[in-house]
Every structure is written in structure tokens, then in C-alpha cells.
Amino acid sequence: MSTVVLLTLTGLGLGALYFLVASGLSLIFGLMDVLNFAHGALMSIGAYATWWAASGHLPGAGSGGAHFALAVVFGTAVGTAAAVLLELAVIRPLYTRPREQILATVGVGLAVPALLSAIWGADARPFPGPEALSGTFGLLGAEVPLNRLVLIAAAAVVLAALQLFLGRTRHGLVVRAGVEDRAMVTALGIDVRKAFTLVFAIGGAAAALGGAIGGLYFGSVDPAQGTSLLIFAFVVVVMGGMGSLTGAALASVAVGLVQQFANYYTTAGLGDLAVVVLLAALLLVRPRGLTGRLA
């Protein structure tokens, strides 16, 4: 029983990390029809910025509880700024040229890990998490790492915030209206380009937050971390239904749990294959994914 509890919470923690990356990816694609292959790079930027700040380079930031929170805020802010820069410099000039858009984001997604490797090396760096989150708590006989709860809580907050933004705020309504009829919204005197930049900023912030606290899960950061997680984030987006936040959340839970249980009860590494099989089976039954709509 204790093993099942540990695997379940670990799988939920991993699924929460997938959701933080996939939510921004789903939001950007669902609202702007942009496949951002540089999204994993934004996560890596957030991870390294947090690691740099928590290592004592940023005044006031460190591995203590409150100081680490400051480092996470810094890492998320840096990732958000990188997302805005990406949209302004790379994506905006290519909105009407989707093929060039894909090639450009793939290039950025390859360039950023190379840049990080050039600056800090290709080897993984230990992540200086706070002492308060390095312990465990007992649940039904299992000793569960506390950082799993942090990931799950962060994913829940991000999901609720995104739902609130899209459904209850003026900016969210402007974005959704701009996607449906950009010409009409522009004729009303609203600058749709600013709304789209805001969407990119929010998506980048979610990915950067995933990188910022993902180091707690893995215990280290490395340049390729965001790229490897991007693959599973795309799987989550497709399984959940392109552009569906609710679907992405459900798919993230499924992928995280399947991966953990398959790796434990079979040969290590078969969890990835099990996720691919799950994706194929779901698409055969529901080609549009779990929801197939923006929710």
C-alpha cells in the first residue's frame, strides 16, 4: 500500500510539472494557433535563472524558505521576459508564415540549450532547494517528499488562474475575441497584438515556473531538461485536446501516473513507451483528445 501511495503522489508531482509546461503550450496554440517549439527553452531559462539566484548571486535570494521563493519569482520573471522577447522578435513577424514560424522556434529551442551549455557547461548542476522542502511526510505508511506537494499546488493554482483569466477578465475576453475575428476586434480600437503578446507572456511564465520549481523534483538543472520535458508536454497537449487547458490537466495526471507505475512495475524506461501506447490508444478512440476544445 505504501508503494502505491508513493508512486501515486510522485506521479501526480511529475504530472503537475508536465502541466506547467503544457498549459502555456496549450494556451498559445489554442488562442494563437502557434506551435512554439521553443517553449522548452523558456522552461530551461526559468530553471537556470532560479538556480543562479538561489545559489546566492541575487541579493536577498538563497536556499532558505523566503529567499528561495524570491529566487523562484526571479526565475519566473526572467522566463516571462524571454517569452515576450521571443514573441516580439521571432513570432510576430511570422504570424502569416506558419512554416517559417515552426523553423524559427525550433532554431531557438536548439540555440538556448547550446547557449546555456556554453555559459555553465553541459553537466547537471545541483539545485539548491530550501531545507524545509527537502524532507518527507508520512501518508498511509509511505514517506512522500514534500516537494511533490509544492508541484501539485503550483499546477492547481496555475490552472485556476488561467481559467479565471480566460473566462472572467477583460484581457482574456479580448484575446478570445481576437482569435475568433481579429479584424472586428481591431476595428473596435483594440490592439490585438498586445493581447497576443500577453498570452505569450503568460505561457512563458507558466513554463518558467515549471523550470523554477522543477529543480526540486529532479534535484538538479541541466541545459537539455526543458527540451526533454517538451516532448511529454506535446503528448499532454495532444491527449488533452489541442488548446484545452482542462484536457491538458487530465492528460498530465494520466501521463505522470502511467509513467511512474510502468517504470516501477516493469523495466525502467518502459514508462515512456507506455505513454506512447496510451497516446495512440486514446487517439484511436477519441481523435480530438479528451476534450478537443478550449475549456
TrEMBL record:
InterPro entries: ABC_transp_permease (IPR001851), BCAA_transport_permease (IPR052157)
GO terms for cellular component: plasma membrane
UniProt-listed GO biological process terms: amino acid transport
Cell compartments where the protein resides: Cell membrane
Membrane spanning stretches: 6-27, 34-54, 66-90, 102-122, 149-166, 195-218, 230-257, 264-285
Main location (coarse class): membrane
Family to which the UniProt record says this protein belongs: Belongs to the binding-protein-dependent transport system permease family. LivHM subfamily.
Protein name: ABC transporter permease
Keyword Transmembrane: yes
Biological classification of the source: Bacteria, Bacillati, Actinomycetota, Actinomycetes, Kitasatosporales
Listed PANTHER family: ABC TRANSPORTER ATP-BINDING PROTEIN (PTHR11795:SF442), BRANCHED-CHAIN AMINO ACID TRANSPORT SYSTEM PERMEASE PROTEIN LIVH (PTHR11795)
Coiled coil region boundaries: none
